[in-house]
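Quick sanity check, PIN domain-containing protein:
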Amino acid sequence: MKIVLDTNVLLTSISERSSIHSIFSGFLDEGYELCVTTDILIEYEEIITRHLGSNVASAVLQVIENAPNVKWITRYYVWRLIEADPDDNKFVDCAIAANATYIVSEDRHFGILQQIPYPKLNVIKAKVFQQLLKDQEGV
Protein backbone atom coordinates (compact mmCIF):
# COMPACT_ATOMS: atom_id res chain seq x y z
CA MET A 1 0.00 0.00 0.00
CA LYS A 2 1.54 3.31 -1.13
CA ILE A 3 0.66 6.27 1.08
CA VAL A 4 1.25 10.02 1.09
CA LEU A 5 0.98 11.44 4.61
CA ASP A 6 -0.04 15.03 5.10
CA THR A 7 2.36 16.82 7.45
CA ASN A 8 -0.16 17.27 10.26
CA VAL A 9 -0.99 13.56 10.26
CA LEU A 10 2.71 12.69 10.49
CA LEU A 11 3.27 15.29 13.21
CA THR A 12 0.33 14.07 15.27
CA SER A 13 1.24 10.40 14.88
CA ILE A 14 4.84 10.71 16.14
CA SER A 15 4.01 10.81 19.86
CA GLU A 16 3.46 7.46 21.54
CA ARG A 17 0.61 9.13 23.45
CA SER A 18 -1.19 10.08 20.24
CA SER A 19 -4.47 8.35 19.42
CA ILE A 20 -3.09 7.83 15.89
CA HIS A 21 0.44 6.73 16.86
CA SER A 22 -0.18 3.41 15.10
CA ILE A 23 0.20 5.31 11.81
CA PHE A 24 3.81 6.19 12.65
CA SER A 25 4.53 2.82 14.25
CA GLY A 26 2.96 1.13 11.22
CA PHE A 27 5.47 2.98 9.06
CA LEU A 28 8.33 1.90 11.34
CA ASP A 29 7.09 -1.71 11.09
CA GLU A 30 7.04 -1.40 7.27
CA GLY A 31 3.26 -1.81 7.17
CA TYR A 32 3.05 0.56 4.21
CA GLU A 33 5.22 2.38 1.72
CA LEU A 34 5.57 6.11 2.43
CA CYS A 35 5.84 8.21 -0.74
CA VAL A 36 7.78 11.47 -0.40
CA THR A 37 9.35 14.23 -2.44
CA THR A 38 12.07 16.63 -1.40
CA ASP A 39 9.43 19.36 -0.96
CA ILE A 40 7.43 17.15 1.38
CA LEU A 41 10.48 16.34 3.48
CA ILE A 42 11.33 20.03 3.75
CA GLU A 43 7.81 20.74 5.02
CA TYR A 44 7.96 17.78 7.43
CA GLU A 45 11.21 19.15 8.87
CA GLU A 46 9.91 22.71 9.14
CA ILE A 47 6.66 21.79 10.89
CA ILE A 48 8.13 19.15 13.21
CA THR A 49 10.88 21.58 14.22
CA ARG A 50 8.31 24.28 14.95
CA HIS A 51 6.20 22.00 17.16
CA LEU A 52 8.60 19.45 18.64
CA GLY A 53 12.08 20.95 18.22
CA SER A 54 15.00 20.41 15.90
CA ASN A 55 16.29 17.27 17.64
CA VAL A 56 13.00 15.45 17.12
CA ALA A 57 12.75 16.73 13.55
CA SER A 58 16.27 15.51 12.75
CA ALA A 59 15.59 12.10 14.26
CA VAL A 60 12.29 11.66 12.40
CA LEU A 61 13.79 12.81 9.10
CA GLN A 62 16.75 10.48 9.54
CA VAL A 63 14.38 7.56 10.10
CA ILE A 64 12.33 8.48 7.03
CA GLU A 65 15.36 9.05 4.80
CA ASN A 66 16.86 5.67 5.71
CA ALA A 67 13.73 3.53 5.86
CA PRO A 68 13.49 0.72 3.30
CA ASN A 69 9.77 1.39 2.83
CA VAL A 70 10.15 4.97 1.59
CA LYS A 71 9.51 5.61 -2.07
CA TRP A 72 11.31 8.71 -3.33
CA ILE A 73 9.23 10.44 -5.96
CA THR A 74 10.37 12.87 -8.61
CA ARG A 75 7.58 15.19 -9.62
CA TYR A 76 7.58 15.93 -13.35
CA TYR A 77 4.28 17.77 -13.56
CA VAL A 78 2.49 20.24 -11.30
CA TRP A 79 -1.27 19.63 -11.35
CA ARG A 80 -2.43 22.61 -9.23
CA LEU A 81 -5.64 20.85 -8.20
CA ILE A 82 -6.03 22.57 -4.81
CA GLU A 83 -6.46 26.29 -5.35
CA ALA A 84 -7.54 27.13 -1.78
CA ASP A 85 -4.13 26.13 -0.35
CA PRO A 86 -1.46 25.78 -3.06
CA ASP A 87 1.02 24.32 -0.51
CA ASP A 88 -1.13 21.19 -0.38
CA ASN A 89 -0.46 20.50 -4.05
CA LYS A 90 2.93 18.96 -3.27
CA PHE A 91 1.09 16.04 -1.64
CA VAL A 92 -1.32 15.72 -4.55
CA ASP A 93 1.48 15.78 -7.13
CA CYS A 94 3.43 13.18 -5.17
CA ALA A 95 0.38 10.91 -4.91
CA ILE A 96 -0.26 11.14 -8.65
CA ALA A 97 3.38 10.52 -9.59
CA ALA A 98 3.62 7.59 -7.16
CA ASN A 99 0.23 6.14 -8.09
CA ALA A 100 -0.42 6.16 -4.35
CA THR A 101 -3.22 4.16 -2.83
CA TYR A 102 -4.21 6.99 -0.46
CA ILE A 103 -3.43 10.48 0.69
CA VAL A 104 -3.96 10.52 4.45
CA SER A 105 -5.06 13.95 5.61
CA GLU A 106 -7.38 15.78 7.96
CA ASP A 107 -7.09 18.97 5.87
CA ARG A 108 -10.45 20.10 4.48
CA HIS A 109 -8.78 21.50 1.33
CA PHE A 110 -8.26 17.96 0.07
CA GLY A 111 -12.04 17.54 -0.14
CA ILE A 112 -12.03 19.21 -3.57
CA LEU A 113 -10.26 16.13 -4.94
CA GLN A 114 -13.44 14.09 -4.52
CA GLN A 115 -15.08 16.32 -7.14
CA ILE A 116 -12.30 15.94 -9.71
CA PRO A 117 -12.84 12.93 -11.99
CA TYR A 118 -9.25 12.80 -13.26
CA PRO A 119 -6.78 12.05 -11.92
CA LYS A 120 -8.66 9.99 -9.36
CA LEU A 121 -7.20 10.30 -5.88
CA ASN A 122 -8.35 8.63 -2.69
CA VAL A 123 -8.12 10.89 0.34
CA ILE A 124 -8.87 9.32 3.71
CA LYS A 125 -8.83 10.53 7.30
CA ALA A 126 -6.20 9.36 9.78
CA LYS A 127 -8.64 7.20 11.77
CA VAL A 128 -9.78 5.43 8.58
CA PHE A 129 -6.17 4.71 7.63
CA GLN A 130 -5.47 3.55 11.16
CA GLN A 131 -8.32 1.04 10.83
CA LEU A 132 -6.98 -0.14 7.45
CA LEU A 133 -3.60 -0.80 9.08
CA LYS A 134 -5.26 -2.68 11.91
CA ASP A 135 -7.28 -4.78 9.45
CA GLN A 136 -4.13 -5.46 7.42
CA GLU A 137 -2.37 -6.80 10.53
CA GLY A 138 -5.19 -9.27 11.05
CA VAL A 139 -4.75 -10.78 7.58
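Posting the structure with no commentary besides this: The chain has one domain: 2-136.
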